[in-house]
């Protein structure tokens, strides 16, 4: 039987008729399973596989209606065609109330049988497609994604299709939409799932160290290279290499990456031995890659090498009520982590979440929920607990009434005294002090500090790495 074909289960206790019907169907290349009793028919149906069933109501061990009722009760994926004599047409019509697709009155021609079976088979295939589509619509979780909106169902289906391929995937989307989550979903859905998933943020690593991060280096190849180091390409051998913020790569490294993609080989920094790996590359950016190409910042040939299967992640504001699903998920997670009693959002808080435009997307929503869990407690999150700009604005502190100079005279404006130049700090130093103070206040917990500062934890890690490289930390 060809893969994916639907067999015909013929339930007929008269051997001569069974052979005739089987021959009719085999001429149309249908696979036929023939049984004579209801018990044998039920045994064949136990596997739950889709079938077109030709059912004679008069069987030696039971009434065929019992077989039909069993198919209906268990919602088996079958299209049932009842075979009946002239005198039992009423029974056949009754059978259709239990889900029978059609009925044939004996005697019938080969053409009538073939056409009825063909139509039943097509109906069964359509029902399977509808069932698959409905299951897709009900996917509220997909690997690391949360959300059942139609836009995300489309993303899940693209990932399903792309995962089995070896082709390079190019993920685009605004910051915070879950590009790394998408890359991990592709890896976990693929045949490489048991092998490593290695992620590199091309914007978080100093440009002079980027080549070593990807391809590794040998001892003594540059100052600080005190030993051989394996790069991400070697660590991802057999698995997936994810290059986030790919448009941040320096032009000379873009050339080396292009050669690596074309040949699957590379040479570590300072080395002379050519190494070969088998991996899949998934890359991502929050920029418009075509504009980067047009403005000369990204190689056109590299773009077309990477941009084989495009996946665009929609912003949170275009994902219908996914914002509430995600918020509830993180509320439960953070409430447990912070040992708080939150279980739900009030209708007014849900309204505020639903109507906010979320420029920071899922990452911003995650930070908002974490702030609520850290700073408040209770059973229900109210609008007053949401941080600005979602929550209710705080009333301004009333200023002290000025003493009038004379009755009826307007108060004299206070002169603005500018600070002295010596008291002004560089902006990076102000930013560094704020970040380090927040980390200290949170006992070294960088994700919590990031949530209170309303920035992503990766931003803190990236800035600290840059400060350390410049000797400012």
Automatic annotation (TrEMBL):
Region (Disordered): 386-423
InterPro entries tied to this protein: AAA+_ATPase (IPR003593), AAA_lid_NorR (IPR058031), CheY-like_superfamily (IPR011006), Homeodomain-like_sf (IPR009057), HTH_Fis (IPR002197), P-loop_NTPase (IPR027417), Sig_transdc_resp-reg_receiver (IPR001789), Sigma_54_int (IPR002078)
Domain Sigma-54 factor interaction: 145-374
The Response regulatory domain, residue ranges: 7-121
GO terms, biological process: phosphorelay signal transduction system; regulation of DNA-templated transcription
Annotated Low complexity bias: 402-411
Keywords in alphabetical order: Activator, ATP-binding, DNA-binding, Nucleotide-binding, Phosphoprotein, Transcription, Transcription regulation, Two-component regulatory system
Annotated SUPFAM superfamilies: CheY-like (SSF52172), Homeodomain-like (SSF46689), P-loop containing nucleoside triphosphate hydrolases (SSF52540)
Keyword Transcription regulation on entry: yes
4-aspartylphosphate PTM sites in chain numbering: 56
UniProt feature coiled coil, ranges: none
Superkingdom classification of source: Bacteria
One Pfam family recorded for the sequence: Sigma54_activat
Keyword Transcription attributed: yes
Molecular functions per Gene Ontology: ATP binding; sequence-specific DNA binding
Compositional bias segments (type: Pro residues): 386-401, 412-421
Xref: PANTHER family: PTS-DEPENDENT DIHYDROXYACETONE KINASE OPERON REGULATORY PROTEIN-RELATED (PTHR32071:SF117), TRANSCRIPTIONAL REGULATORY PROTEIN (PTHR32071)
Name of the protein described by the UniProt record: Sigma-54-dependent Fis family transcriptional regulator
Organism the protein comes from: Azospirillum ramasamyi
């Amino acid at each position: 039987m060809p893969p994916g074909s639907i067999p015909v289960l013929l339930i007929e206790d008269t051997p001569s008729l069974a052979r005739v019907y089987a021959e009719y169907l085999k001429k149309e290349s249908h696979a036929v399973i023939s049984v004579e009793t209801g018990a044998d028919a039920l045994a064949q149906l136990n596997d739950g596989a889709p079938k077109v069933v030709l059912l004679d109501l008069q069987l030696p061990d039971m009434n065929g209606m019992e077989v039909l009722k069993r198919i209906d009760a268990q919602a088996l994926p079958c299209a049932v065609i009842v075979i009946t004599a002239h005198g039992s047409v009423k029974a056949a019509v009754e059978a259709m109330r239990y889900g029978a697709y059609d009925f044939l009155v004996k005697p019938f021609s080969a053409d009538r049988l073939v056409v009825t079976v063909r139509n039943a088979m097509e109906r069964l295939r359509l029902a399977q497609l509808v069932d698959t589509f409905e299951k897709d619509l009900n996917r509220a979780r997909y690997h690391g994604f949360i959300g059942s909106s139609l836009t995300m169902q489309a993303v899940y289906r693209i990932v399903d299709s792309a995962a089995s391929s070896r082709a390079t995937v190019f993920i685009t989307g605004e910051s915070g939409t879950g590009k790394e989550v998408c890359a991990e979903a592709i890896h976990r859905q693929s045949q490489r799932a048991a092998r490593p998933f290695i992620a590199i943020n091309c914007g978080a690593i100093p440009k002079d160290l980027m080549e070593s991060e990807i391809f590794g280096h040998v001892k003594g190849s540059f100052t600080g290279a005190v030993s051989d180091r394996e790069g991400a390409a070697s660590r991802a051998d057999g698995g997936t290499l994810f290059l986030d913020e790919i448009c941040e790569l320096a032009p000379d490294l873009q050339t080396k990456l292009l050669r690596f993609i074309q040949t699957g080989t590379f040479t570590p920094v300072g080395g002379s031995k050519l190494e070969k790996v088998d991996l899949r590359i998934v890359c991502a950016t929050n920029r418009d890659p075509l504009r980067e190409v047009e403005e000369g910042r990204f190689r056109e040939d590299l773009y077309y090498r990477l941009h084989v299967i495009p996946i665009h992640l929609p912003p949170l504001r275009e994902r219908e009520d996914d914002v509430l699903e995600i918020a509830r998920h993180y509320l439960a997670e953070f409430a447990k982590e912070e040992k708080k009693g939150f279980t739900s959002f009030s209708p007014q808080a849900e309204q505020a979440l639903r109507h906010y435009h979320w420029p920071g997307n899922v990452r911003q929503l995650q930070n908002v929920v974490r702030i609520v869990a850290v700073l408040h407690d209770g059973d229900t999150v109210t609008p007053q607990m949401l941080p600005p700009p979602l929550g209710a604005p705080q009333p301004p502190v009333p200023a002290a009434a000025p003493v009038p100079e004379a009755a009826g005279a307007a108060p004299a404006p206070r002169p603005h005294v500018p600070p002295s130049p010596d008291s002004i700090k560089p902006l990076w130093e102000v930013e560094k002090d704020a970040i380090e103070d927040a980390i200290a206040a949170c006992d070294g917990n960088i994700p919590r500090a990031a949530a209170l500062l309303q920035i992503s934890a990766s931003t803190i890690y990236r800035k600290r790495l840059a400060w350390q490289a410049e000797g400012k930390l």
